[in-house]
Amino acid sequence: MLALDPAQIEAADIYKLMIGMIVPRPIAFVSTIDSSGIRNLAPFSYFTGCSSNPPVLCFSTSVRSGPRPYKDTLENVKATSEFVVNIVSEEFAEQMNATSVSALPEVDEFELSGLTPLPSDLVKPPRVAESKAQMECRLNQIVSVSERPGGGILVLGEVLRFHVLESLLDGYRIDPVKLNAIGRMGGPAYVRTHDLFEMQRPK
C-alpha cells in the first residue's frame, strides 16, 4: 500500500484523494439570498449532520484563488444568517448540476436551472419545490479551517424547520427508496441509493 505525505502533495491533488476516499457524500443543495434579495443555489458535497439536540447540520465551502475567493453562498450566509438545505433526488440531478457553474453574484440560479422557488416558513431564502425534503436553517457559526486556496470554511446551521413529503414518512422515518437521493463520488461521478442492505446494531 502506498503511503502519501500531504506535505509533499499539491492542494489540488489532495482534493482528488479526499473526494475519492470520502465516498459516497450526500449533497447539500443550499439556497440563499443576498442582502438585496437575489436568489442563489449551489451544491456542496462536504455535508453532514452534527447535532440532534438542537438539530444542527454543517457544510463546507472551499476558498478559491483569484479576485473572488469566497463563494456567493458563504457571502450570503454571512450577510443574512439564513439558508435552506434541499436534499437532491435523482429526478432533478441535471438541474442541480447546472447550478454548479461559476456564475456572477447577480445571476439567479433558480432561473438558470429552471427549478422552482418555494417560500420558506421561517427564513427568507426559498426552498426548492422539486426537493422532497428541505431544512430551513439559521446560522450557528462559521469556522475557518484555512484561508489558503483550497482551504475549508465550515458553515453550521441550526435547523428551524423540517419539510418532508408526507408520502416519504413512516412516523419520523424517511423511506430512502422514495427519497431517491443521490450522492457524490470522485470527479464527475455520482451514486444512486437504490442498492440497499440492512444490518442491525449489536446489543
Structural notes for this entry:
This protein is of the alpha+beta class and 203 residues long. It has a single domain (8-184), classed as Electron Transport, Fmn-binding Protein, Chain A (Pnp Oxidase, Chain A). The protein contains 5 helices and 14 strands. The strands form 4 sheets. A 7-stranded antiparallel beta sheet has the order 3-2-6-9-10-5-4, with helices on one face. It has a 3-stranded antiparallel beta sheet with strand order 1-13-14, with no helix packed on it. β9 (133-144) and β10 (152-164) form a beta hairpin. The model has no long low-confidence stretch (mean pLDDT 96).
Question: In summary, what is this structure?
Answer:
With 203 residues, the chain is of the alpha+beta class.
Mean pLDDT: 96
Beta-strand content: 35-45%
State the CATH class: Mainly Beta
What is the multimeric organization of the chains shown? Answer: single chain
Q: What characteristic shape results from the CA principal axes?
A: globular
> What's the Cα radius of gyration?
17 Å
Tally of alpha and pi helices: 5
**What is the distance, rounded to the nearest whole angstrom, between the alpha carbons of the first and last residues?**
35 Å
Number of domains: 1
Unreliably modeled segments = none
Order of helices and strands: HEEEEEHEHHEEEEEEHEE
Number of strands: 14
CATH architecture: Roll
